[in-house]
Amino acid sequence: MINKKQIGMFIAAFFLLTLAACGGTDSKQGQNEEGAPDVAVGETETPIVSMEMENGGIVKLELYPEIAPKTVNNFVALVEDGFYDGLTFHRIIPGFMIQGGDPNGDGTGGPGYEIKGEFSNNGIDNPLSHERGVISMARTQEPDSAGSQFFIMHEDALDLDGDYAAFGKVIEGMDVVDEIAEQTETETGGALEGRPVAGQEQVIKKMTVER
After folding, report:
1. Which residues, at least 6 apart from 99, have a Cβ–Cβ distance to it below 8 Å?
2. At the top level of its lineage, which domain of life is listed (predicted)?
3. What does the alpha-carbon distance between residue 206 and residue 176 come to, in Å, rounded to a whole number?
4. Cα torsion 71, 191, 13, 204: sign
5. In this structure, what CATH number is given to the domain that contains residue 29?
6. Number of H helices, E strands in the chain
7. Residue 200's domain spans which residues?
8. Which is deepest, 85, 113, 143, 151, by most CB within 10 Å?
9. Could you tell me the CA-to-CA distances from 101 to 56, 116, 202, 204 in Å, in that order?
């Protein structure tokens, strides 16, 4: 009989294998390909990102630059540049996570550069666990391949700890995350697993930063 931990390990392995193009170099705009824009987010700051969905739902995310400074700087820079406005959650797996931030909308796009992966198996201590509501960066199998794609945990998946750069958590609007995860009709099986079917797209209207 398969236990809960084995299921979690299977999900984590599935997640890694199907992120084969998440650090892609396709650019929505002309970013510096040598690295993320330099934004001064001090490690004593706690930026709050407000994500408004096209249907009116709002999710607020608290970010932790003291845990993952490069990741937070990059995310804040993209938010302030309007990069995420109009993009979708292109991969939705209830009981696991919702993934967005791809300008191509299919898991292959990014901002045109890659950032350092801030997690323990890449030499950087990151104590933030992948619990329900935590936001983390998607990547390919290369550790330093994250760009703009992120995922928000619908439920705990602690097997991801140490392999992905968690950098914040939902502080308001977890009901919106639940609605996206549980009520969006998605494709099943094959390479399109988790992709919303036509007419079920979950669109981010706008993201803003409070700091």
Report:
1. 89, 90, 91, 92, 107, 138, 149, 150, 151, 194
2. Bacteria
3. 15
4. positive
5. 2.40.100.10
6. 3, 8
7. 4-210
8. 151
9. 18, 17, 12, 9
